[in-house]
Amino acid sequence: MMGPKQEAQPALSYGFSLEEHVPRDHLLRSIDRFADQSSIRAHLSDFYSHTGRPSIDPELLIRMLLVGYCLGIRSERRL
């Protein structure tokens, strides 16, 4: 049953900052600086369908594979 709007509920999420949790000299920060792939989405757009379920962003996929290779993660499921 839908009733009148109740008072504000407490936030369901909490504040989390990667900047506070990932050290400045961590390998992932080096990968982020090195892996600038802003143009890859436009280059690969012809290979992705515009209908159906959306696919994984190619930039994200390549970043995940780089991290997996550098950290020795062999399974895409574990990534």
How would you explain this protein's 3D organization?
- The structure is a single chain.
- By secondary structure, the protein is mainly alpha-helical.
- It has a domain at 23-47 and 55-79.
- The protein is built from 4 helices and no strands.
- Helix 2 packs antiparallel against helix 4.
- The chain is extended and about 40 Å long.
- The mean pLDDT is 76.
Straight-line distance between termini? 42 Å
**Residues in helix, %:** 25-40%
**Rg of Cα set:** 19 Å
Total number of helical segments? 4
Largest sheet: none
Poorly predicted ranges (pLDDT <50, ≥5 residues)?
Answer: none
Which outline best applies?
extended
Question: What is this structure's SSE topology?
Answer:
Blueprint: H1 18-21, H2 27-34, H3 40-44, H4 58-71
In short:
This protein is mainly α and 79 residues long. 39% of the residues lie in helices and 0% in strands.
Please give a handful of descriptors for the protein shown:
79 residues; mainly alpha; 4 helices; extended
